[in-house]
């Protein structure tokens, strides 16, 4: 073997050595990446599981909310109903006591008082009557049944109220039934 | 991207809906109503009024109020107000504008895109006019869809394979019947028919006419000329009609309907459903003619219709439902408010176009309740039916006997109150519990259902942390029919089951009281005087013999006697231990004493 050939072999072995080293390093990297990927996959799986559980929780909460709302609505009128029972009692007293009795004035007075207590009751619930007669006709609050021509009022004015309308907390719950000047 | 809304632009009424979460939600207007009359008015002060308010002022202002503009869509008809001409598109746009504005206030964001529904028979020109109306109202109309298609979408029928559907739409003032074929999410209209002057008001009018005739017969007075009386009759007729959808007799009471020289007159009548059906039979028949025609045009037999959908408020009338049911031979689809089903379907289509719907993760629900058997064969639910999965829930149980070292966990599913009537999913045992008096050990039973419906049941002794798990597949071997039957059975036998449950609870209570009494005598052998011992023993023996019998009331009464005897003694004990103690405190202690037994015994 010439000196040159020998040198080549040595060089080659040096190359092989460095190549081996490189390959080893790359293997290490792949291994590391693989573990990392597995870790991420596991995490993603866990997160998805968690996400689905939370989603299901939300669904179940919604269902519970609907159930609770239904229950709530069922008894929402309870406080008002309780108050109305007292009015019914009074009305029944009026009926009982006026049966066979011709005292019209006493009955009238009683019914009037009952009517007042009912008005107070709804007022406490935020219900107010709508002003109508003499006001300019406003379809937001007034529902005309007839149009009158030749009245003393100027055109498009409420001339008569046939049934009172009511507002509850700013919302018209029933418009006044009115006559309007033509 | 903003929300895309769905709009049902109707002849008489309109509605608007939007997808929220994965549900179509109807948006109420500024007046708080879920439907808006399709009426536009121009007041004398030149204000533009839309909806309920426009309808209200119509009588004072008929020549400047526009109703049923939908009938004019696609024609060159115009409305003239103060020399200005409005096309049907422009009038429709005013209705859309009101719906849009009110919905924007609700959503808190601008609306720029919509899906609008039209009748299946609308021509291209009519569809184009509807699209233009949307544009004038400031919305891009992403799609025009047929009203019957929207109704089918609302019921999710597009996801169920190829089928033929009949949509029966009896609205405020028009009647439409359509036959559709759905396949692979594609809708094809096979035929349509209808009557564009038929609706809910016609049914009210029948009742009103009847009331007027009856009143005339009774009092010789014609109410027809009395505007106020007519108004009250209309309200009463509507109310009676609605009531007759649920009950078979409606009382119509209108006090002081009018007055004569002799004094006030009241209207008091009672209308049966049979009578109402009789007086409206011709109206129902008017729906069946077009229905037969539509079927004939489609070339189908009634038996070839797979589903029937009801749309429009008047389809709530039982006679209408009966007529269509008898004709097709199938139970019509109900469940979604018939006044809102078209708008809801439009919102679903809008959601799909906006991409809101496609990404929804569909989670399953448990079709039946899951639980375990507890003392006396009671089925104790841990997870209620219709709970969305994945989910987990746990409950703590205890032992039923002294020195019980193992508990049997019998896992069941079903809706009945007794375990024996439900279906066993599996059984396992948790052994190795330390010896303890009954009621002392705490065993946590946890149900965990994963996303695939696999149920993991774990029982864990909280003292030793010993646990045992079983993995089960829910609804094993149960078909949809089985599940349905089980749910129905639970309703059918609800009363019986409740009685049985009460009986077992009474027995369990009695048994637990006897146990307590025995324990009390044993633990307090020295402190107890003869009198107390005698009283408790006697009450205990009597309860024991009552338990051998079947008289529940007797068991209850004897339990009460024993409870009182036991309390009398414990009260004395506490008095001795704490002579200064007030009465209230004793009461408190006594009630507290019984809590361990309120828990479920296992």
Number of strands of chain A: 6
Strand content of chain B: 25-35%
Give the overall shape of chain A, derived from the CA principal axes: elongated
Whole-number mean pLDDT of chain B: 88
Q: With helices defined by DSSP (H or I, 4 residues minimum), what is the helix count of chain A?
A: 3
Helix vs. strand class of chain B: alpha+beta
Q: Describe the biggest sheet of chain A?
A: 3 strands, antiparallel
Q: What is Rg of chain B?
A: 34 Å
Helix and strand pattern of chain A: HHHEEEEEE
Q: For the report, how would you describe the main beta sheet of chain B?
A: 6 strands, mixed
Gyration radius of chain A, to the nearest Å?
44 Å
Distance between the termini of chain A: 130 Å
Task: Note the quaternary state here.
Answer: heterodimer
Poorly predicted ranges of chain A = none
- The low-confidence parts of chain B are 581-602
Question: Using CB atoms under 8 Å apart, which protein chain pair has the greatest interface?
Answer: A-B, 29 and 27 residues
Strand order of the largest sheet of chain A: 1-4-5
Short précis:
Chain A has 182 residues and is an alpha+beta fold. Chain A is 64% helix and 16% strand. Chain A has a three-stranded antiparallel beta sheet. In chain A, strands 2-6-3 form a three-stranded mixed beta sheet, with no helix packed on it.
């Amino acid at each position: 073997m010439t000196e040159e050939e020998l040198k080549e072999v040595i060089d080659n072995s040096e190359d092989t050595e460095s190549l081996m080293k490189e390959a080893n390093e790359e293997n290490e990297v792949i291994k590391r990446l693989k573990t990392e990927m597995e870790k991420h996959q596991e995490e993603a799986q866990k997160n998805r599981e968690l996400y689905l559980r939370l989603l299901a929780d939300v669904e179940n909460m919604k269902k519970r909310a609907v159930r609770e709302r239904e229950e709530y609505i069922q008894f929402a009128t309870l406080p008002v109903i309780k108050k109305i029972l007292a009015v019914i009692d009074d009305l029944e007293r009026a009926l009982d006591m006026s049966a066979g009795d011709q005292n019209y004035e006493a009955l009238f007075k009683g019914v009037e008082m009952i009517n007042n207590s009912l008005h107070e009751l709804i007022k406490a619930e935020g219900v107010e009557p709508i002003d109508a007669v003499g006001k300019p006709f406003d379809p937001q609050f007034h529902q005309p049944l007839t149009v009158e021509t030749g009245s003393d009022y100027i055109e498009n004015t409420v001339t008569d109220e046939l049934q009172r309308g009511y507002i509850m907390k700013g919302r018209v719950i029933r418009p006044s039934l009115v006559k309007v000047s033509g | 991207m903003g929300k895309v809304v769905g709009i049902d632009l109707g002849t008489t009424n309109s509605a608007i809906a939007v997808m929220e979460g994965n549900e179509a939600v109807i948006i109420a207007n500024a007046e708080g109503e879920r439907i808006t009359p399709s009426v536009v008015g121009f007041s004398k002060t030149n204000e533009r009024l839309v909806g309920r308010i426009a309808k209200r002022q119509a009588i004072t202002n008929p020549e400047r109020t526009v109703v049923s503009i939908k009938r004019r869509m696609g024609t060159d008809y115009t409305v003239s107000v103060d020399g200005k001409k409005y096309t049907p598109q422009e009038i429709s746009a005013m209705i859309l504008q009101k719906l849009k504005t009110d919905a924007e206030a609700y959503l808190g964001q601008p609306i720029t895109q919509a899906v609008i529904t039209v009748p299946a028979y609308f021509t291209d020109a009519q569809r184009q006019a509807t699209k233009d109306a949307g544009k004038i109202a400031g919305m891009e109309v992403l799609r025009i869809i047929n009203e019957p298609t929207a109704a089918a979408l609302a019921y999710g029928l597009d996801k169920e394979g190829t089928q033929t559907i009949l949509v029966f739409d009896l609205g405020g003032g028009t009647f439409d019947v359509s036959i559709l074929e759905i396949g692979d999410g594609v809708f094809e209209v096979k035929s349509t028919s209808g009557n564009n002057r038929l609706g809910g008001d016609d049914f009210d009018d029948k009742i009103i006419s009847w009331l007027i005739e009856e009143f005339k017969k009774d009092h010789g007075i014609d109410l027809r000329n009395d505007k106020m009386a007519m108004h009250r009759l209309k309200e009463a007729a509507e109310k009676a009609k609605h009531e007759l959808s649920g009950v078979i007799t409606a009382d119509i009471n209108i006090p002081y309907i009018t007055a004569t020289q002799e004094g006030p007159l009241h209207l008091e009548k009672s209308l049966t459903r049979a009578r109402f059906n009789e007086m409206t039979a011709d109206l129902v028949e008017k729906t069946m003619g077009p229905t037969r025609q539509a079927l004939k045009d489609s070339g189908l037999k009634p038996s070839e219709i797979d589903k029937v959908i009801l749309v429009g408020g008047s389809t709530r009338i039982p006679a209408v439902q009966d007529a269509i049911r008898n004709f097709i031979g199938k139970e019509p689809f109900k469940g979604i408010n018939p006044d809102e089903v078209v708008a809801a379907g439009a919102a679903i289509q809008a959601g799909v176009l906006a991409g809101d719907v496609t990404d929804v993760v569909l989670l399953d629900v448990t079709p039946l309740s899951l639980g375990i058997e507890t003392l006396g064969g009671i089925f104790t639910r841990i997870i209620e039916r219709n709970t969305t999965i994945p989910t987990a829930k746990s409950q703590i149980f205890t032992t039923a006997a002294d020195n019980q070292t193992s508990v049997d966990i019998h896992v069941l599913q079903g809706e009945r109150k007794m375990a024996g009537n439900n279906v066993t999913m599996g059984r396992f045992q948790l052994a190795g519990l330390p010896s303890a008096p009954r009621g002392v050990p705490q065993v946590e039973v946890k149900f965990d259902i994963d996303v695939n419906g696999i149920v993991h049941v774990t029982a864990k002794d909280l003292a030793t942390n010993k646990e045992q798990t079983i993995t089960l597949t829910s609804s094993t071997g149960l078909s949809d029919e089985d599940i349905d039957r089980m749910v129905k059975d639970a309703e059918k036998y609800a009363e019986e089951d409740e009685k049985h449950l009460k009986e077992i609870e009474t027995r369990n209570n009695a048994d637990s009281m006897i146990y307590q009494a025995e324990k009390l005598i044993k633990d307090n052998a020295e402190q107890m005087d003869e009198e107390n011992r005698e009283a408790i023993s006697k009450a205990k023996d009597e309860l024991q013999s009552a338990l051998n019998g079947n008289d529940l009331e007797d068991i209850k009464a004897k339990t009460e006697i024993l409870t009182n005897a036991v309390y009398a003694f414990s009260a004395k004990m506490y008095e001795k231990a704490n002579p200064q103690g007030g009465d209230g405190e004793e009461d408190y202690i006594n009630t507290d004493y019984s809590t361990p037994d309120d828990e479920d015994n296992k």
